[in-house]
Amino acid sequence: MKQTPFGTMPDGTAVDLFTFDNTNGSRLAVTNYGGIITSLLVRDRAGNLGDVVLGFDSLTGYLERSPYFGAIVGRYANRISEGRFALDGATYRLERNDGPHHLHGGIRGFDKAVWAAEPFENARGRGLVLRHVSPDGDEGYLGTLTAEVRYLFTDADELVVEYEATTDAPTPVNLTQHSYFNLAGGGDILGHELMLAADAFTPVDSTLIPTGEFAPVAGTPFDFRVLTPIGARIGARDRQLEYAGGYDHTFVLRGGPGAALRQAAQVVEPSTGRTLDVSTTEPGLHFYSGNFLDGTVTGKGGRVYHHRTGFSLETQHYPDSPNQPQFPSTILRPGERYLSRTVFAFSVTSPV
User: Fold this and answer.
1) Helix (H, G, I), strand (E, B) or coil at 3
2) Other C-beta atoms within 10 Å of 2: how many?
3) Which domains does the chain have, with CATH numbers?
4) 3-state class of 139 per DSSP?
5) Which residues are catalytic, by number?
6) What is the H or E stretch that residue 64 is in?
7) Each residue of 280-338: pLDDT tens digit?
8) Distance between CA atoms of residues 97 and 6, nearest Å
9) Which DSSP letter does residue 69 get?
10) At CA 75, angle to CA 70 and CA 79, rounded to 5?
11) Which of 45, 66, 260, 321 has the highest count of CB atoms within 10 angstroms of its CB?
12) DSSP-derived secondary structure for 154-212
């Protein structure tokens, strides 16, 4: 493990970068600003290392232009309609930062916090424990929330992400990891082949708030039950795709919420052979196809991030759950412990 300075916040707080190598020569780099994964180098089928996540070379990029690249998102990942919800007879109003809605924890969510960081090592690999205390009233949320996120980078090229949180008052909690992946290391992601272990998804209205339905994927452009190129149907005439400008939807994973780790997704990039398998304890997976990347952001090494040059697979509860009684609850109460686990496992396929 190597710890180096990464930059300084406007208030003078120092930010560090933590770099971890495994026995395969793969490398993970994480900063304690937002718990952001700044780079993740894994091998292709020819043995060449390549960076498979989007991001910036310095802290400045993340402070100025980042669309949540690589960050921990909270207190609530995704959208809460009109930035408000009712709980135990009272109505709470959150900061609105996505038109009329609250998105990814608000104006200064967990992605913009400087987390306390502590490296560790065990028999499986090495990693980083990140801790953050969100005070009562933070972005409008009730209660003081104490959060811990553990990144473990194993010698089997797995990135294990474990979330834990407690609160002193009832509050919604929905944490996720928001890396943008490109397994080819560049170009668009439309040729990546995607499988999602989901028979249904949550349709949205024109402002991307769920309607409350669970719609079958069969016979729609949202059917990724077998490996299918991301670009195969992204341009289809479909109202849901038109609302989002592509895929920006949560899929209902088989098995529902629970403690069991189960497969959520697989991605294969044919030209490099890189494969990503995702498993999680969460009930949903939000698939985002980089629709809002538009060529105005320049990232690592001067690379311009054009339309659909990255995708996200955000394991989480469903959007707007505090306002959708038919969705699994996201309310954490005093005495309870929020626990969530997701594994991103990288490997390579043989040429066909």
Assistant:
1) strand
2) 11
3) 2-348 (2.70.98.10)
4) helix
5) 178, 314
6) helix 59-64
7) 999 999 999 999 999 999 999 999 999 999 999 999 999 999 999 999 999 999 999 99
8) 27
9) T
10) 80
11) 321
12) ETTSEEEEEEEEEESS-EE-B-EEEPPB-TTSSS-STT-EEEE-EEEE--B-TTS-B-S
C-alpha to C-alpha distance for 327 and 331, rounded to whole angstroms: 11
pLDDT score for 50? 97
Distance CA 87, CA 104 (A): 19
And the tokens for 180? 């943008």
Return d(Cα 126, Cα 105) in angstroms, integer.
Answer: 29
Longest distance between any two alpha carbons in the chain, whole Å:
60
What pTM was estimated for this model as a whole? Answer: 0.97
Average model confidence (pLDDT) for the chain?
A: 97
Looking at residue 165, its pLDDT comes to: 98
Residue 244 region by backbone torsions, left for phi larger than 0, else alpha for psi between -120 and 50, else beta: alpha
* Degrees, nearest 5: CA angle 333-337-339: 130
Helix (H), strand (E) at residue 49? strand 49-51
Each residue's pLDDT tens digit, 115-126: 999 999 999 999
Nearest Cα neighbor of 173 from 116, 129, 110 is 110
- Per-residue pLDDT band at 9 (split at 50, 70, 90): very high
Q: What is the pLDDT of residues 46-85, one digit of tens each?
A: 999 999 999 999 999 999 989 999 999 999 999 999 999 9
pLDDT tens string 148-178: 999 999 999 999 999 999 999 999 999 999 9
Report the run of H or E that residue 60 belongs to, with start and end.
helix 59-64
Q: 147: which 2 tokens?
A: 């959060």
How many residues comprise the chain? 352
Q: Of 152, 180, 150, 183, nearest to 42 (Cα)? A: 183
Are 75 and 65 contacting, i.e. CB atoms less than 8 angstroms apart?
no
> What is the spatial distance between Cα 176 and Cα 179, in angstroms, rounded to a whole number?
10
Q: Which two tokens stand for residue 284?
A: 């949903």
